Amino acid sequence: MSKHGKILVAMSGGIDSTVTAVMLAEEGYEVVGITMKTWDYETSGGGKKETGCCSLDSINDARTIAVKYGIHHMILDIREEFGDFVINNFVEEYMAGRTPNPCVLCNTHIKWEALLKRANMLECEFIATGHYANVRLENGRYVISKGKDENKDQSYVLWGLSQQSLAKTRFPMGQYRKTEIKQMAINRGFTELATKSESYEICFVPDNDYRGFLKRRDPGLEARVDGGNFVLTDGRVIGKHRGYPFYTVGQRKGLEIAIGEPLFVVEIQPETNTVVLGNLDDLNRNGMWVRGLNMVKYASLTEPVEALTKVRYKDPGNLSTISQHDNRMKVEFHGEVKAIAPGQSAVFYEENDLIGGGWIESGFQL
Questions:
Q1: Where are the domains of the chain?
Q2: End-to-end CA distance of the chain
Q3: Of 53, 54, 103, 203, which is the active-site residue?
Q4: What is the C-alpha to C-alpha distance for residues 33 and 73, in angstroms, rounded to an integer?
Q5: Number of other CB atoms surrounding residue 167 within 10 Å
Q6: SS3 state of residue 231
Q7: Of 1, 29, 178, 246, whose CB is crowded by the most CB atoms within 10 A?
Q8: What is the average pLDDT score of the chain?
Q9: Active site residue 203
Q10: How far is it, in rounded angstroms, from Cα 53 to Cα 61?
Q11: Catalytic site residue from 53, 54, 106, 124
């Protein structure tokens, strides 16, 4: 009988999930390791060496660590669920003129669901992952807060988790800095793991070329959307583009058009295959609407509150006033914010606590 009970740990083969599993085993938990196979790299067509969480090398790394520490380990094939849900959504969002956030969608609807299902089957009391975040119970709700290491904090990608999921989840990495985790790995003989480069790409786009992925997914796409208009914010046509799905709001490089000053993608209009360009100031917005809310710290907001709002993962955040309107949030920034991209996640913070989040619907100027 273990000292602390049984816990299911998501082991990707990377340093964070490895140290999570080893740390919990050393603390006296009965650890069951699970590695999820979400995607076949050979089908991506990118030709790049496998480096992500789904690669054969990563699966073998996870199994090797598990064997060394006497951790029961299993591989869970969720490629079918992942492909049907995450990849279809990825394509649909680009075709709708939005910029998708597949990792958030995968965490919320695929990985946690798969982990909790197996935890129940294996009679594990909790699940644990290597995310840099924290969770606590306060006023009857499970609250996510930022990890100790601000540079590695991953609370942004966890906004979609339900209260039921959070009740069963532990984030051991949340109390440590990355440098401390690397030293823990070295102290346990995992020097190679501590120096292993980390992949930040989408697992099914390992070459980081989402345009190539869309073309391979739909071979006739390029011919259907090629030749739409580039227009300025005043409506003037200034050239032809390669198809609206191949552009994102805020993009500057790769436009292949010049008028003597830098141009940026300001808006995408899929109905007419139009890409609107403008200068840097044309990207400014001081408000936005956010849809598909998941509230974390509070069940709902009954009145406007001040919050720090992040509009992308590496965004330091912007002061704002947020007000809830059913399942939408109106966000009024206390200044200008650039390149608000529909389809990306918006996450609201009260100091270090995650109030909730949702999908950016549109930006506006008050």
A1: 6-195, 224-278, 283-364
A2: 61
A3: 203
A4: 5
A5: 13
A6: strand
A7: 29
A8: 92
A9: yes
A10: 10
A11: 106
Question: Quick check: 346 and 329 in contact, CB under 8 A?
Answer: yes
Instruction: Give residue-wise pLDDT tens across range 150-165.
Output: 999 999 999 999 999 9
Cβ contacts of residue 135 below 8 Å, gap of 6+?
A: 142, 143, 144, 145, 166, 169, 170, 171, 174
> CA nearest 357: which of 308, 285, 302, 287?
308
The answer to whether 356 and 348 are in contact (CB under 8 A) is: yes
Q: Quote the radius of gyration of the chain (alpha carbons, Å).
A: 22
Contact 333, 320 (CB under 8 A): yes
Class of domain 224-278: mainly beta
Rounded mean pLDDT, 281-295? 98
User: Where are the strands (E) in the chain, listed by range?
Assistant: 6-10, 30-37, 72-77, 126-128, 133-138, 141-146, 169-170, 229-232, 237-240, 264-269, 274-278, 284-295, 305-310, 318-325, 328-338, 345-350, 353-364
pLDDT, greater one: 184 or 53: 184
Q: Round to whole Å and give the CA distance between 244 and 239.
A: 13
Name the amino acid, one letter, at 191: T
In the three-class reduction of DSSP (H, G, I as helix; E, B as strand; rest coil), residue 143 is classed as strand
**Of the ranges 5-14, 104-113, 183-192, 331-340, the best mean pLDDT one:** 331-340
**Which band of pLDDT confidence, cut at 50, 70 and 90, is reported for residue 2?**
low
Find where tokens 């990377």 sit. 14
224-278 matches 6-195 in CATH topology: no
Assigned CATH for 283-364? 2.40.30.10
Single-letter residue type at 36: M
What is the DSSP code string of 69-98? Answer: TT-EEEEEE-HHHHIIIIIHHHHHHHHTT-
Would you mind telling me the total number of residues written for the chain in this entry?
A: 366
Indicate if the pLDDT at residue 50 is higher than 50.
no
- How far apart are the C-alpha atoms of 244 and 230, rounded to whole Å? 9
Residues 6 or more apart whose CB falls under 8 angstroms from that of 104 comprise 157, 159, 160, 345
CA distances from 300 to 134, 287, 294, 355 (A): 21, 20, 9, 9
pLDDT confidence of residue 41: 59
The CATH class of the 6-195 domain is alpha beta
